[in-house]
From TrEMBL:
Gene3D superfamilies: Methylglyoxal synthase-like domain. Its EC number is 4.2.3.3. HAMAP family: Methylglyoxal_synth. The active site is at 62 (proton donor/acceptor). Belongs to the methylglyoxal synthase family. The gene is mgsA. It catalyses: dihydroxyacetone phosphate = methylglyoxal + phosphate. One of its GO terms (biological process) is methylglyoxal biosynthetic process. Keywords: Lyase. This is Methylglyoxal synthase. Transmembrane segments: none annotated. The keyword Repressor does not apply.
Length: 122
């Protein structure tokens, strides 16, 4: 069982849903557990996935996922960041990305990278 964390900023949620639809066969397997920040998780559920929803990003969801990364509980992070928007929880976002590097966890921050990662993972 592998755990994938899915996160998308508001401006990137449509692309995330598109990505989830594109890789349904790979991602909707019982060998993969999906965890997500709150609103991304709701969209992921609406796309037909079973997902463990954590808090919304600005309320601490990124920090919760960061903690799971630090505990060795996450195998891959797909985080579609919106570089054109400001985020009140920027420190949490950087913490999450830093911990991916600390613990050598694959992190995709855009759809092109995510596609390559998922193909490598499958
Ligand atoms: O803010 C986020 C990532 O930094 C995402 O949070 P939501 O999925 O709750 O919108």
């Amino acid at each position: 069982m592998k755990t994938i964390a899915i996160i998308a900023h508001d401006g990137k949620k449509p692309e995330m849903v598109q990505f989830l639809n594109e890789f349904r066969e790979t991602l909707n397997s019982n060998q993969i557990k999906i965890i997500a920040t709150g609103t991304t998780g709701s969209k992921t559920e609406a796309a037909g996935y079973k997902v463990e929803k954590l808090l919304s990003g600005p309320l601490g969801g990124d920090a919760q996922i960061a903690a799971r990364i630090a505990e060795g509980l996450v195998d891959m992070v797909i985080f579609f960041r919106d570089p054109m928007d400001k985020h009140p929880h920027e420190p949490d976002i950087f913490m999450l990305m830093r911990l991916c590097d600390v613990h050598n966890v694959p992190l995709a921050t855009n759809p092109a990278t995510a596609r390559l990662l998922i193909r490598g993972f499958a």
